[in-house]
Specification:
about 140 residues; alpha+beta; about 25% helix; single chain
């Protein structure tokens, strides 16, 4: 019985060491299977292209309205509003890495991960809550 356990352990360690070797076929398979590195289907610069409204955040079950407009380009650049009453003219950039997105400079301090997306809605998960976005310009308060 010890032989079978030793054999199984040896095979497992062998597979793990191959996965760590960046040149091996199994390394690509293992990396692709990790959820934090796997590309979310459709979460691309082409999906983000155009104007979006960062409508609100939900943190600790409390909602905070943001109503800030962003215009995303496919080349990784963007324009944004400094506050809801200014023009959408501040330059910035963004990068999608797997299921994560970094938006600089405005939201660079947040680690944001795709939680859900549809054609016109996007929810990004932050360490302490959620960021809600909707496609199009922000609508002024009624």
């Amino acid at each position: 019985m010890k032989f079978h356990s030793a054999l199984a352990l040896g095979l497992l360690l062998s597979a793990c060491s191959q996965a760590d070797d960046p040149g091996s076929e199994s390394a690509d398979t293992v990396a692709a299977a990790k959820p934090e590195t796997a590309q979310a289907p459709g979460f691309t610069p082409a999906y983000l292209e155009g104007q979006w409204c960062h409508t609100h955040n939900i943190m600790d079950h409390e909602r905070s309205d943001e109503m800030l407009s962003y215009i995303f380009s496919q080349d990784g650049t963007l324009l944004y509003q400094n506050n809801p009453s200014t023009e959408v003219d501040r330059p910035g950039s963004y990068a999608i890495e797997g299921r994560n997105i970094k938006i600089k400079p405005t939201l660079a301090f947040f680690n944001m991960e795709l939680q859900s997306m549809s054609r016109d809605e996007l929810i990004l998960k932050m360490p302490y809550g959620e960021m809600h976005w909707s496609r199009g310009a922000c609508k002024p308060p009624a």
